[in-house]
C-alpha cells in the first residue's frame, strides 16, 4: 500500500463516519502569539475547543502539516539519528466538537487499524491515564472498560501524566489520552522480550502511532483545571509511522514517504544510503530529506528564511541540512533545491501549495544554499587563522570566545569547527561553549520573558469590534488580566465595544486612549488572541467596571489605512506591469510607511518603477469609492475575482475590499475613497530574498513631507552652488572633478616612476636571493603596479611593501617567477597580516592584506626582514 493510498483511506474512512474533510491549515501561524508553527493537528481547531469560534461541523477529519523545532515540542536534534523523529510531519486526525466522545473514538480507531489497514491485533498495545493524586485526577476507568471490548486486559497499560495526559501548552485545553502502540519486531524478538516492556521506552520498532485525546479540561494560568463547557475528541496519528507499520519497514525513512527523496540525494551526491543509524553519511542523508520537507512547506506557506522569529527557525533548519551535506556528502555546491521537484511529485496532489509555489521554493532554497556555503568558506579561513594562532601560542584548546563568535555572529557550525580542530590535534572547550550558548539563550529569554495572569471576567458578554465604522466609542471592560515583562506591569483589557484595530494582515494595531471623567489610560498596542481583541494599557482603573470612552489615535489611523489601501492598488499595478506571477509575500503597514514583498525574480527597472507609481497615482486621482463586503462566502468572493493569498487561513465567510478592479480578501482598515490617499511615492526597491522583491513606499502626509524635504534640499544646493540651474552646475562640477582626478593619477604615476629607481637599489642580497622590505605612503594601485614591474625585472627576488596610505595599513608581497616553487606570496602575507590585525590573500606570485592596526606595521617590517 503506497503512502498516498494510506492517506486517502484514512480520509475516506472518516468521511464514511460523517466527518467533514478539511484541508491542512498553513504550517506557519501568523496570528497566534503563542506559537510560530502548527506543532500538532489540533492547532487550527484551538478556538473551537476554547469556545471562541463555532466549528463548521461537529465532526471533522484532516491531515495536518506540523513542524516541531522550537519550544516544548522540539525534535530537531533527534532528526537523522533515529528512525522516526522528524521536523516536519503529517498528523492524521479526527475531531469531535461536543459530539461523540470516548466510545466512538476508541471503536473507530480499532476498526480502522485492524479491519481497514489490517494491522494484526496481537501487534497492538494501548495505554490509558493512571490518574494523578496531586491534580486530584482519577484513573481513566471509562477508557479502560471500552478498550477491554477489543483487546486483552494485559495489553492495556497504565500511563503517567507525562505520557497520558495531553496538554496544548502551559495553559489551554487538555485532558487524559489513550495511546495506541504497534510492535513491529520479528517473531523471534517478540519471543525474547515482551512488547509490554518496550512501550514508551524509545524502542525504534515499538512505537506510538495514534493518540486519542479526550479533551475535557482547561488549564488556567495559575495551574488549576476547570471543566470545558463541552467534551471534545482530538486525535493524532503520525502518518510517517503509520506508513512504516503498514509497509512493514523498520524505519520511516525506508517508506515511500522518503525513498524517492533519498534516491535523488544518492544520484546527486554519488553516495549510497545504507540506513545505518551510526553512519554519519546515512545520518546526513536522513537530515537532508527530512529538512527539505520542512523548509519547502514553510516557504510555500509564506515564511521566508530570515534572521528573526519563525524565519530564523526555517533558516536554521536549512543551514543544518547544508552543513551535514557539506561535511558528510562532500557537497560544496548547492544541490538541495533540486529535491523540491521530487517533493512536488510526491505530495503536490494533497498539498497544492507545493505546485503553486514550486518555483519560488526552489529559488529561495538555492539562494540560501549559495549564501551559507559562502559563509562556510569564509568561516574556514577564520577557523584556520584561529588554529594557527592557537598552535603558535603552544595551546591545545581553541579559545571559547572566538569559537562562539564564529557560531553566533558568523553562523559557522560549531560542530564543523570541532571537526577541523580535531584534525589538527586541537579541541574546543565544550563546557565553555555550552555555557556561552546557555547565557545567550537566557539573555534572549529574559528580553522576551513575560508573565501573563488569568483573566478576571467582569461580564460574560460578546465583545464587538466597531473600528470599521468609528474611531471613538463608549465602552466598558468585560475582562482584564495583568501582564509583567521587562518594561514593567501592564494590563490587557477586552472591551465591550472596541474601535481599536488589532494587529493583523500586515497592519499594526491601533493606539489611543481609554478614559472617563476621572481616569485616563494610554492604549499602547492592540492585538488579537483566541478571537479576542486585546488592548494593552498602562495601568488598572480603580473602578474596572466603569463606563469609558475609547479613542483611537486619529492621525495614525488615517495614515495607516491610507497606506493599507495603497498596498492593494500597488499589488494590482505590479501584476499589470510585471505579470500575473506577482503575488504578495508579506507586508508591513504603519502610519509612517508601507513595505510590500512580492514574488518576482529580477530587480525592477527605473521604467517599471515609474510605471507602477504612475498607475497607482492614477487610481488615487480617479477618486474610487471603497466597496466593502463584510460577510461574504469565500467562494463567492473568489468567484468575484478576489485575490486569496497562499499561506493565509480564511474562514467560510470573509471580508472583501474592492477599489474598482482591485479586489482582495482583507481584514484591515481602509480609506472610503482613494482620493484620501493623496499621493503615492516609492522610496526604494530591493531584494528581500531569492525570488522576492521588496518595495518601501509612503503616501499621504508622509509623501507631502518627502517632497517638501526635496524642495528644501534643492534650495540649499542652489544656494551652495550659487545657481538656480542645479543640474547644470553639478554637471560642471563633475567635469572639473574628472579632470582633476586625471591630473592626480598622472602625478601619482610620475611619483611612482621616481620611486622605482630608488627601490631597485634598495634590495638586499640574502645568499643567492634578493629581499626588499620597504615602507611607503603610496596608494594601493601604485604599489601594485611597482611590485609587478619589480618582480619581473629583479630576478630571485621577494618584494614586501608596507603602506600607510590614507591612514590604513596595507601589506603587498611579490615573488619573482623563478622563486615561485620556493615561496608563496599568500603564505607570507597571511603571516605578516597578524601584526596589523588583518587578513588577505592572493596567488603564489602576488598577494595583499589589509588590517586595523596601523602601529603594527613596524612589527610587520621587522618580521619581514627575516624572510
From TrEMBL:
Q: Which InterPro entries match?
A: aa-tRNA-synth_II/BPL/LPL, Ala-tRNA-lgiase_IIc, Ala-tRNA-ligase_IIc_anticod-bd, Ala-tRNA-synth_IIc_core, Ala-tRNA-synth_IIc_N, Ala-tRNA_ligase, Ala_tRNA_ligase_euk/bac, DHHA1_dom
Question: Which GO-annotated molecular functions does the record name?
Answer: alanine-tRNA ligase activity
Q: What's the chief localization of this chain?
A: cytoplasm
Query: Which UniProt key words apply to this protein?
Result: Aminoacyl-tRNA synthetase, ATP-binding, Cytoplasm, Ligase, Metal-binding, Nucleotide-binding, Protein biosynthesis, RNA-binding, tRNA-binding, Zinc
> What does the note under cofactor report?
Binds 1 zinc ion per subunit.
Question: What does it catalyze?
Answer: tRNA(Ala) + L-alanine + ATP = L-alanyl-tRNA(Ala) + AMP + diphosphate
- Please tell me whether the keyword Iron is annotated for this protein: no
Q: Please state every residue range assigned to the domain named Alanyl-transfer RNA synthetases family profile.
A: 1-709
- Identify its protein family: Belongs to the class-II aminoacyl-tRNA synthetase family.
Protein name per UniProt: Alanine--tRNA ligase
Q: What organism is recorded for this protein?
A: Chryseobacterium luquanense
What gene name does this entry carry? alaS
Amino acid at each position: 500500500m503506497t503512502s498516498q493510498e494510506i492517506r486517502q483511506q484514512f480520509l475516506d474512512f472518516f468521511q464514511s463516519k460523517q466527518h467533514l474533510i478539511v484541508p491542512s491549515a498553513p504550517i506557519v501561524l501568523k496570528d497566534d502569539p503563542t506559537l510560530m508553527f502548527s506543532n500538532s493537528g489540533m492547532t487550527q481547531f484551538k478556538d473551537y475547543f476554547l469556545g471562541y469560534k463555532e466549528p463548521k461541523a461537529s465532526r471533522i477529519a484532516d491531515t495536518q502539516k506540523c513542524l516541531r523545532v522550537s519550544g516544548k515540542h522540539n525534535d530537531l536534534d533527534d532528526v537523522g539519528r533515529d528512525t522516526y523523529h522528524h521536523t516536519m510531519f503529517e498528523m492524521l486526525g479526527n475531531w469531535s466538537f461536543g459530539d461523540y466522545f470516548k466510545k466512538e473514538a476508541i471503536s473507530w480507531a480499532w476498526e480502522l487499524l485492524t479491519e481497514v489497514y489490517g494491522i494484526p491485533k496481537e501487534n497492538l498495545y494501548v495505554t490509558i491515564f493512571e490518574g494523578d493524586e496531586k491534580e486530584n485526577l482519577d484513573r481513566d476507568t471509562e477508557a479502560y472498560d471500552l478498550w477491554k471490548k477489543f483487546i486483552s486486559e494485559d495489553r492495556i497499560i497504565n500511563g503517567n501524566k507525562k505520557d497520558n495526559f495531553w496538554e496544548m501548552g502551559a495553559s489551554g485545553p487538555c485532558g487524559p489520552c489513550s495511546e495506541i502502540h504497534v510492535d513491529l519486531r520479528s517473531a523471534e524478538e517478540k519471543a525474547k522480550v515482551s512488547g509490554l516492556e518496550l512501550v514508551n521506552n524509545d524502542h525504534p520498532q515499538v512505537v506510538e502511532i495514534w493518540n486519542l485525546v479526550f479533551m475535557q479540561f482547561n488549564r488556567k494560568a495559575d495551574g488549576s483545571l476547570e471543566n470545558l463547557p463541552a467534551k471534545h475528541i482530538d486525535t493524532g496519528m503520525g502518518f510517517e509511522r503509520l506508513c512504516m507499520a503498514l509497509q512493514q519497514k523498520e524505519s520511516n525513512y525506508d517508506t515511500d514517504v522518503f525513498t524517492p527523496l533519498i534516491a535523488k540525494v544518492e544520484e546527486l551526491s554519488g553516495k549510497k544510503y545504507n540506513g545505518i543509524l551510526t553512519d554519519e553519511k546515512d545520518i546526513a542523508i536522513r537530515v537532508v530529506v527530512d529538512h527539505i520537507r520542512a523548509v519547502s512547506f514553510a516557504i510555500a506557506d509564506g515564511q521566508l528564511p530570515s534572521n528573526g522569529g519563525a524565519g530564523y527557525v526555517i533558516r536554521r533548519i536549512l543551514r543544518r541540512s547544508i552543513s551535514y551535506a557539506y561535511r558528510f556528502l562532500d557537497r560544496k555546491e548547492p544541490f538541495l533545491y533540486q529535491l523540491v521537484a521530487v517533493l512536488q511529485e510526491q505530495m503536490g496532489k494533497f498539498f497544492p501549495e507545493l505546485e503553486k509555489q514550486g518555483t519560488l521554493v526552489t529559488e529561495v532554497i538555492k539562494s540560501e544554499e549559495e549564501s551559507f556555503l559562502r559563509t562556510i568558506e569564509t568561516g574556514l579561513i577564520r577557523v584556520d587563522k584561529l588554529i594557527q594562532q592557537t598552535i603558535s601560542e603552544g595551546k591545545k584548546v581553541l579559545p571559547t570566545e572566538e569559537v562562539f563568535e564564529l557560531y553566533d555572529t558568523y553562523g559557522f557550525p560549531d560542530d564543523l569547527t570541532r571537526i577541523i580542530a580535531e584534525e589538527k590535534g586541537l579541541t574546543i572547550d565544550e563546557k565553555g561553549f555550552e555555557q556561552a550558548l546557555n547565557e545567550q539563550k537566557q539573555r534572549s529569554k529574559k528580553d522576551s520573558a513575560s508573565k501573563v495572569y488569568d483573566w478576571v471576567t467582569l461580564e460574560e458578554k460578546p465583545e464587538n469590534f466597531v473600528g470599521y465604522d468609528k474611531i471613538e466609542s463608549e465602552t466598558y471592560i468585560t475582562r482584564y488580566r495583568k501582564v509583567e515583562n521587562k518594561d514593567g506591569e501592564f494590563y490587557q483589557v477586552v472591551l465591550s465595544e472596541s474601535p481599536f484595530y488589532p494587529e493583523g494582515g500586515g497592519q499594526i494595531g491601533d493606539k489611543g486612549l481609554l478614559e472617563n471623567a476621572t481616569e485616563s489610560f494610554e492604549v499602547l498596542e492592540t492585538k488579537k488572541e483566541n478571537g479576542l481583541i486585546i488592548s494593552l494599557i498602562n495601568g488598572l482603573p480603580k473602578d474596572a467596571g466603569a463606563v469609558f470612552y475609547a479613542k483611537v489615535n486619529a492621525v495614525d489611523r488615517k495614515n495607516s489605512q491610507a497606506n493599507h489601501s495603497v498596498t492593494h492598488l500597488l499589488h494590482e499595478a505590479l501584476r499589470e506591469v510585471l505579470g500575473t506571477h506577482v503575488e504578495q509575500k508579506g507586508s508591513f503597514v504603519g502610519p509612517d510607511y508601507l513595505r510590500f514583498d512580492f514574488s518576482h525574480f529580477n530587480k525592477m527597472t527605473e521604467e517599471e518603477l515609474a510605471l507602477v507609481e504612475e498607475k497607482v497615482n492614477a487610481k488615487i486621482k480617479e477618486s474610487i469609492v471603497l466597496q466593502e463586503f463584510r460577510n461574504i462566502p469565500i467562494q463567492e468572493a473568489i468567484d468575484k475575482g478576489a485575490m486569496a493569498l497562499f499561506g493565509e487561513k480564511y474562514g467560510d465567510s470573509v471580508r472583501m475590499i474592492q477599489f474598482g478592479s482591485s479586489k482582495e480578501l482583507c481584514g484591515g482598515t481602509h480609506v472610503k475613497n482613494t482620493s484620501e490617499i493623496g499621493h503615492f511615492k516609492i522610496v526604494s526597491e530591493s531584494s528581500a530574498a531569492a525570488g522576492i522583491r521588496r518595495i518601501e513606499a509612503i503616501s499621504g502626509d508622509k509623501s507631502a513631507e518627502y517632497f517638501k524635504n526635496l524642495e528644501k534640499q534643492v534650495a540649499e544646493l542652489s544656494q551652495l552652488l550659487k545657481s538656480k540651474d542645479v543640474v547644470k552646475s553639478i554637471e560642471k562640477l563633475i567635469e572639473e572633478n574628472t579632470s582633476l582626478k586625471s591630473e592626480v593619477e598622472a602625478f601619482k604615476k610620475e611619483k611612482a616612476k621616481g620611486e622605482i629607481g630608488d627601490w631597485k637599489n634598495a634590495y638586499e642580497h640574502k645568499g643567492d636571493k634578493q629581499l626588499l622590505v620597504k615602507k611607503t605612503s603610496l596608494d594601493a594601485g601604485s604599489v601594485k603596479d611597482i611590485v609587478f614591474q619589480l618582480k619581473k625585472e629583479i630576478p630571485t627576488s621577494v618584494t614586501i611593501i608596507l603602506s600607510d596610505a590614507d591612514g590604513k595599513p596595507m601589506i603587498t608581497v611579490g615573488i619573482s617567477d623563478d622563486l615561485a616553487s620556493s615561496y608563496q606570496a599568500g603564505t607570507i602575507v597571511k603571516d605578516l597580516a597578524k601584526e596589523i590585525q588583518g587578513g588577505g590573500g592572493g596567488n603564489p606570485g602576488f598577494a595583499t592584506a589589509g588590517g586595523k592596526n596601523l602601529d603594527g606595521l613596524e612589527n610587520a617590517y621587522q618580521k619581514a626582514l627575516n624572510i
